[in-house]
Amino acid sequence: MHLPPHAIRPDYAGGSVLNLAATLGAHFGVPTHHAPYRHPLPLDGARHVVLIVVDALGAGQLRDAITRGDAPTLASLTPTPGPVTSVFPSTTMAALTTLHTARAPAEHGYLGLTVWLDEAQAVVNLIRLYDVYTHAPLADAGFLAAVPSLYRQVRDRGVAAHVVMPAAYQHSVLTRWACDGAEYHPYAQPEETPELTAATIQPGQASYTLVYFPEYDLICHGSGPDSPEAHAELRRTDRIVADLLAALPRTGDTLVVLTADHGQSPQPPDGYVDAITKKVMKTALRGPVAGEERAAYLRPQPGHHAEIAALLAPHATLLTADDAWTGGLFGPPAHAGARFRPRVGDLIAVPHPGHAIRRPTSPAPMLGLHGGWTAEETLVPVLSGRV
């Protein structure tokens, strides 16, 4: 599997969010077949771990924010001494589910915002659980819960598990599975998270808590990661993290780790590619394009592979899904779930920097995107501190 020079492969051998989650779980006795996180974390004697996830906060975005003076609190935490990657695709459905489960995308099956599901014979939006072409709801989503959550596993070992997340997500199918075993602490505004997080730290009871901030990602999509709006939201997040750190009991046995599921890259409006039209979809593909605008999964009709490749080759790197799967792009092949392989189609197109594949089922064009393998999308920060 040959990737372009700008491509960053997920470092599942010890330098990815997968390994970070596995090591945090292992600290509480959860077994893992994945390599430990290779960068040192001050875990010795930690009875409580608080993992803060700022959606879409790429390593480069954080570096620029610190340079601007927008993130003094984050700048005060200890950064990892080496690069850390997201997963592939570098998108929330794949990466955040990895943080919830300590499993690679090829193991948990959430391989993008939309995927082909053999079980439904449709391309399905995994957040809203409907057929992206007909909008018919997925009748039974129980089969999507493929692996146990990390929270259930730590709870089974006598550790209290908590998630501090928006109230709007509390009853979704994904949340009920991925956060199974955790006590859910819903918030309406992010400013509520310091008090909610501090309440999860109880004397005499070891605990694992995840705090999730999705707002920065939403603003980066709408206004672009380099926009004043995104900068303002990151300043807000930094202030909230400062309040959260101040609210925690000063017992010395709490480790706070901050990371992201992925980064974001600016998306020029004129970089959207309209190669997959409704006509092409109906004549040359076996159903809608799945995946992401920055990592598309296609299922060409027999005899139409070359036609689809020719349409996309000027704008994207193409690889067969078989090569990507066996080459470990979605996770170590030894632990990949064979039943998930069809979900990524037959042909994968990863657009060149600045490009995005628009399709008939795409939402309105966004000014910030992720999903691909550029440094902006793939490299994420890991910061830590003891409280």
Notable features of this structure?
alpha/beta; four-stranded antiparallel beta sheet; seven-stranded mixed beta sheet; 20 strands; 387 residues; globular
C-alpha geometry: globular
How many runs of DSSP E, i.e. beta strands? Answer: 20
Provide the residue-averaged pLDDT.
96
Outline the low-pLDDT stretches.
none
Give the distance, in angstroms, between the N- and C-terminal Cα atoms: 44 Å
Proportion of residues in β-strands: 15-25%
Strand order of the largest sheet: 2-20-10-1-9-7-8
Class of secondary structure makeup? alpha/beta
Instruction: Write down the Rg.
Output: 20 Å
Kindly state the percentage of residues in helix.
Answer: 25-40%
Main beta sheet: strand number and arrangement? 7 strands, mixed
Q: Give me the number of helical elements.
A: 14
SSE layout and pairings?
Elements: H1 17-27, E1 48-54, H2 59-68, H3 72-76, E2 78-79, E3 84-85, H4 92-101, H5 105-108, E4 114-117, E5 122-125, E6 130-131, H6 150-155, E7 160-166, H7 173-178, E8 183-187, H8 193-198, E9 207-213, H9 215-223, H10 228-247, E10 254-259, E11 265-266, E12 272-273, H11 278-284, E13 290-292, E14 295-298, H12 305-312, E15 316-320, H13 321-326, E16 347-351, E17 356-357, E18 368-369, H14 375-378, E19 379-380, E20 382-386
Parallel strand pairs: 1-9, 1-10, 7-8, 7-9, 12-17
Antiparallel strand pairs: 2-20, 3-19, 4-5, 5-6, 10-20, 11-18, 13-14, 14-16, 15-16
Helix pairs in contact: 1-4, 9-10
Pfam families: Phosphodiest (PF01663)
Protein name: Phosphodiesterase
InterPro entries: Alkaline_phosphatase_core_sf (IPR017850), Phosphodiest/P_Trfase (IPR002591)
